[in-house]
From TrEMBL:
GO biological process: protein secretion by the type II secretion system
Domain of life: Bacteria
Biological source species: Agrilutibacter solisilvae
Keyword RNA-binding: no
This protein's name: Type II secretion system protein H
SUPFAM superfamilies xref list: Pili subunits (SSF54523)
Subcellular location, record wording: Cell inner membrane
Record's keyword terms, sorted: Cell inner membrane, Cell membrane, Membrane, Methylation, Transmembrane, Transmembrane helix
Domain General secretion pathway GspH: 34-157
A GO-annotated cellular component: type II protein secretion system complex
Claim: Iron-sulfur is one of the keywords in the record: no
Family: Belongs to the GSP H family.
Topology in membrane: Single-pass membrane protein
Length: 183
């Protein structure tokens, strides 16, 4: 009986020590998966623009799984990629939806001012802003938690449409990312 009590006490101590670490690993994996999927969506939009020789848009969406999803940075839960035949940056009738994804539970999507919820790729494969300049912007995947410490993943589109992912810390908060984050 004493051996059983000692074994249970050791088990309780191990679980108490391991749980925060397990939670950190789980949250970190969710953030990494969201960042990788976001990068894949942007790369897919760029590839489709080149392949189809037509403007393609990758945008944040609050209803990506709907029959007629819409681009919206507010309350975004996922991404849509479509051929933008009328060049208005919104998915509409007659336009072909190419790819849809929803982010893992607990992930908040935030876009920088220049990103404004979407990236429009021209047939040359370069993302441009509304004024026609090369897009230089960021989308954040964030979890408002303290574990892991680096609770943000920046997916950045640099001049020339280079894509990169970097980690950052904003403990228990998610804010609007800078167009060119330094961390």
């Amino acid at each position: 009986m004493i051996e059983l009590m000692v074994a249970l006490a050791v088990l309780v101590i191990l679980v108490t020590v391991a749980y925060p670490s397990l939670q950190s690993v789980t949250n970190s994996n969710r953030l990494t998966a969201a960042a990788n999927e976001s990068m894949a969506m942007l790369q897919n939009a760029r590839l489709e623009a080149i392949r189809n020789n037509r403007r393609t848009v990758a945008c944040l969406s609050a209803n990506p799984q709907a029959a007629a999803p819409a681009c919206s940075a507010n309350g975004a839960t996922g991404w849509i990629v479509f051929l933008d035949g009328d060049r208005n940056g919104q998915f509409g009738a007659g336009e072909r939806l190419l790819r849809v994804t929803t982010m893992p539970t607990g992930i908040q999507l935030r876009s920088s001012a220049k990103f404004a919820g979407l990236a429009s790729f021209r047939s040359d494969g370069l993302a441009r802003d509304a004024a026609g300049a090369l897009l230089n912007a960021t989308v954040d995947m964030c979890m408002p938690v303290s574990e892991p410490v680096q609770n943000v993943r920046h997916v950045s589109i640099g001049t020339g449409s280079r894509l990169s992912i970097t980690k950052a810390s904003t403990p228990q908060a998610c804010g609007t990312p800078a167009d060119n984050p330094q961390t």
